[in-house]
Amino acid sequence: MNVVVIGTGYVGLTTAVSLAMQGHQVAGIDVDESKIIQLRQGKTPFYEPGLDEALPRVLGTGTLRFTTRLQDAAHEATVVFICVGTPSGADGSADLRFLLNAVDNLLELQEKTPAERVIAVKSTVPVGTTDYVAQQLQSFPELHVVSNPEFLREGSALRDALEPSRIVIGAETDRAFALMEQLYLGISAPRVLTTRANAEMIKYASNAFLATRISFMNELARLCDKLGTDVKTVARGMGLDSRIGPEFLQAGLGYGGSCFPKDTTALLQLAKQHEVSLTILEKVREVNLNQPEWFIRRMRDQLATLSGKRIAVLGLSFKPETDDIREAPSLKVLSLLLAEGADVAAYDPVASPSVQRIFPHVTYADTPYDACNGADAAILVTEWKECTQLDWVQVKERMSAPFLFDGRNAWPAKQLKDIGFSYTGVGRS
Ligand SMILES: NC(=O)c1ccc[n+]([C@@H]2O[C@H](COP(=O)([O-])OP(=O)(O)OC[C@H]3O[C@@H](n4cnc5c(N)ncnc54)[C@H](O)[C@@H]3O)[C@@H](O)[C@H]2O)c1
């Protein structure tokens, strides 16, 4: 099928590449000209494993192209995906500016080159948004407006797009479902065929629930800390229960990234607008907001003061295998450490340049070992393997004091204690 993808960020580019890999004829559109120039050269504008190899390969087969002009690419398209960002607005609700701009562009396209098309909203949007888009486009009965939320995870985006856990399609007509089924013919995954509003709610509810599991464990970790129980062992024991499962039970410094923080906030705002209070979710957000502070307080308690202390911060991206630093816990950790007067040296395999633009006064090391040179303490913020699989004897030799703070419970606690480190994890006293 002929497909257009509006917005070539993490979601749009991955969608475009995965559909082109399945033999569809795809055009990726973005308003960011420099991004399009880079993409045409086969270079991914962000770090995402597998995408950097797949992109030049599909470009070579001629099934994928990029442009800044919707009019140039979309006249033959049967399916147009909207994959633009929906960041948090000032009050926490989703800012739909980019989406509405894309809809305006589609109105123009439809006026100039009328044809039957599916407009599929992949951006995460509040319940009711896709119905609103349908209203905006209602003068074109040949258009089918569909909600098709995306569940890929940064770090394994391409694999997730090719082997999704489920495909959720919210539509109002059999024809719309049929066209979407035709598009996803090559993908074997359970289908949820429903209304547009249900599809939108499935996305928000999924992210809110995953965030809830994380905050539940983070709060429990604070109690484990007091009781001398080990939250990591507790999580393993819980996760073996098939009704619970092991995923998203890891205590740490809280969730970050471009989805959980903004989507939980947007869902809370949506509930507020409808005079419903989501008290559990409010607490989920609150626990997450103060988790880094709780852990830094533990650090301060142990080191007596952070002022003047040299601290190595290992890992900066919001999770491993991505360069995305949107809402990353590292940003809070750095700002708390700097506010306490610490002297910070940070390391990340890919995210340092983006963090450096926000925190120019931090030293950015080329290796985790360099970050540990002369450090009074080291804190693990992101569990990159570069930051977890270390030669600990060398780390100890380089540090000036042996304090390790494992913000992700990913360091080998027992081995570290045997070597002579003072080890503090999250909820593992
Ligand atoms: N990143 C994720 O892991 C993820 C996962 C699932 C869902 N989502 C959702 O998908 C959406 C996109 O997220 P993302 O992380 O890919 O965002 P992103 O910020 O990486 O990319 C958005 C892109 O859209 C472009 N854009 C904005 N307005 C445009 C327009 N009118 N025409 C063409 N291009 C335009 C921007 O230049 C940018 O390149 C969001 O709603 C997000 O919540 C993201």
How would you describe this protein?
- This protein is α/β, with parallel strands linked by helices.
- It folds into 2 domains: 2-194, 3-Layer(aba) Sandwich (Rossmann fold); 207-425, NAD(P)-binding Rossmann-like Domain (Rossmann fold, 3-Layer(aba) Sandwich), CATH 3.40.50.720.
- Helices cover 46% and strands 14% of the residues.
- The protein is built from 18 helices and 14 strands.
- The strands form 3 sheets. A 6-stranded parallel beta sheet has the order 3-2-1-4-5-6, sandwiched between helices. A 6-stranded parallel beta sheet has the order 11-10-9-12-13-14, with helices on both faces.
- The longest helix has 32 residues, at 196-227.
- It is globular, with a radius of gyration of 23 Å.
- It starts with a strand and ends with a strand.
- The chain binds nicotinamide-adenine-dinucleotide.
- Nicotinamide-adenine-dinucleotide (NAD) binds at residues 6-12, 29-32, 35, 83-86, 98, 101-102, 123-124, 150, 152, 154, 258-259.
- Nicotinamide-adenine-dinucleotide binds next to helix 1 and helix 5.
Any key phrases for this structure?
alpha/beta, Rossmann fold, six-stranded parallel β-sheet, globular, binds nicotinamide-adenine-dinucleotide
What are the SSEs and their pairings?
Elements lengths: L1 E5 L3 H12 L3 E5 L3 H8 L10 H11 L2 E4 L2 H5 L4 E4 L14 H16 L4 E5 L7 H8 L6 E5 L9 H6 L4 E4 L3 H10 L7 E4 L1 H32 L3 H9 L20 H14 L5 H25 L6 E5 L14 H11 L3 E5 L4 H7 L4 E2 L3 H5 L4 E4 L4 H4 L3 H7 L4 E4 L6 H7 L2 E4 L4
Parallel strand pairs: 1-2, 1-4, 2-3, 4-5, 5-6, 7-8, 9-10, 9-12, 10-11, 12-13, 13-14
Helix pairs in contact: 1-3, 9-11, 9-12
The structure holds nicotinamide-adenine-dinucleotide.
